[in-house]
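anyone seen this seq b4? input:
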Amino acid sequence: NTELLQSVQIEATFKGMESSDKLPILKTVPPGESIYYFSLKPVKNAYSYNYQFTYIKGDVTAVHNDDVVYYLPYPQGQSFIVDQGYNETPTHMDQFALDFHMDEGTEISAIRDGIVFEVVENNNKGCPRQDCSKFNNYVLVLHEDGSIADYSHLEKNGALVEVGDNISAGDPIGISGSTGYASGPHLHLEVYVMRFTGQQSVKVEYYLDKNTVGIPKSGKKYTQEMD
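predicted toks r here
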């Protein structure tokens, strides 16, 4: 599937050789495929070379389409309070993420069309400590512009989709829980693009109601009204 890209950057140093292409080289590669990068040719009797590569899932050249407005992450007519907003303490500093207060077992909906990029749902543990992050259950959805939506803290076996599924905004994709780094049940929601330095959070806007577009604020309750 050409949408499920991996980004690979190759750097090399060499003496007495020349390269067919300018280095470093960055390319995106569909999983399981081979791709030509470059070749080295000796130009002197004594020559040497070494190389290194960096690999990451996702397209590090992706640019978010800021004209896109996102749906709220739950079904039509339902309402939830935002417990923590963008860049707020204790866990969202320098992060454009939202925490929606949801009881365990609440259905979560897709906020934008996309393709399921990754699913983890085998964990059954959560605690309010960073070391519990490894127990997080989540669904990642890749969007047309290469950005990714992260729906985290799902209950065990709480994913309603599989990798490669095409989904539309509003489709059910998971069931909320409290796995991973969580002090209680909630949905952690974030849109980001990948970079070799890690995830780069993106400031996105939502349909707060039929007539309002904006950023959900902590302490406020919002109702899905888009159907």
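The CA atoms of residues 161 and 226 lie 22 Å apart. The two ends are 31 Å apart (CA to CA). kinda curious what u guys think
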